[in-house]
Design goal:
By secondary structure, the chain is of the alpha/beta class. The chain has one domain: Divalent-metal-dependent TIM barrel enzymes (TIM Barrel), CATH 3.20.20. The chain is 44% helix and 15% strand. The chain contains 10 helices and 10 strands. It is globular.
Length: 284
């Protein structure tokens, strides 16, 4: 029933130091995005991993009682620059190839967004489908899952859009990283229960991991992201549905600063425990 954490919330550090910090904070698993979290190896281009390095990173985390549940990959999969697009794909595929040595069953990503606010096109959707199909084929060769996540303002920004992508790129290697906080925005926060229920209805059977952040309206009336337990998201409903569809799924906490982590973890675990008890699950 443990809650993990994004490794880079502790900063970008040498991996031995990072593993020690995560373990000292009491977490037993992490989502590791190497180029965001590790400072003593430059992962900004593909090609740096070797079996020795991957095993060394995994062993260092294990020393501190931490496993790598998810490899994170914050890359753009329909960028117009063809050279950059191929580089992004190769970086993801490198994580797929080394995931097993790192002990991670999932390599996860959002598909990207237009930061200039420009409209998405048929070309963007076609390219994403081609890339996701290529990544799923690679994952199948290595026994790894590709975890896709919907996020507001991204090309795949809603549960319905992610469901459509899964239908158009059918593969048992593709799963969903569920994150209701990513689906909430200023306009729909008041209807959040419907948004959360729809996400599980459309994506529930495909969930392979879960993210946990919180959302609330700021003093100016705009939605903002805060640590779990510091906002107004319906965590009771979230944990109820997660336990209903995917009991035991790894949860990775987001958005918290180090001094907030213990409180946020207890908040998530409290709601998950209540959901388990309500469903008659025996807990320790």
């Amino acid at each position: 029933m443990t809650v993990g954490v994004l490794a880079h919330l502790f900063g970008k550090l040498p991996y031995r130091q990072l593993a020690a910090k995560v373990g000292a904070a009491g977490f037993t698993h992490v989502q590791l995005a190497p180029w965001r979290a590790i400072s003593d190896v430059n992962f900004n281009k593909p090609g740096k991993f070797s079996p020795g390095l991957a095993l060394s990173i995994a062993e260092e985390f294990r020393k501190h009682g931490v496993s790598i549940s998810v490899l994170g990959c914050y890359l753009h999969f329909f960028v117009q620059d063809e050279q950059l697009l191929r580089e992004n794909v190769e970086r993801f595929k490198e994580l797929i190839r080394y995931a097993g040595l790192l002990g991670a069953p999932i390599v996860a990503a959002e598909v990207g967004r237009n930061r200039d606010g420009s409209a998405y096109t048929e070309r963007d959707w076609r390219v994403v489908k081609e890339v996701v199909r290529e990544l799923a084929d690679e994952a199948g060769q290595w026994g790894v899952f590709v975890g896709l996540e919907a996020a507001n303002d991204h090309l795949v920004g809603t549960a319905a859009e992610l469901a459509a992508l899964l239908e158009e790129v059918p593969s048992s290697q593709i799963g969903v990283v569920i994150d209701p906080g990513n689906l909430l925005k200023t306009e729909n926060l008041a209807q959040q229960d419907e948004v959360i229920r729809e996400a599980f209805r459309l994506l529930g059977p495909r969930i392979i991991a879960a993210h946990a952040k919180d959302r609330r309206l700021s003093s100016s009336g705009e939605i903002e992201t805060v640590p779990p337990g510091f906002g107004n998201m319906n965590y009771g409903l979230y944990m109820e549905l997660l336990e209903q569809y995917k009991p035991g799924a790894h949860i990775i906490m987001e958005a918290a600063k180090e001094h907030q982590m213990a409180e946020s973890r207890c908040y998530i675990e409290g709601h998950r425990l209540a959901a388990q008890k309500a469903q008659g699950v025996q807990t320790k």
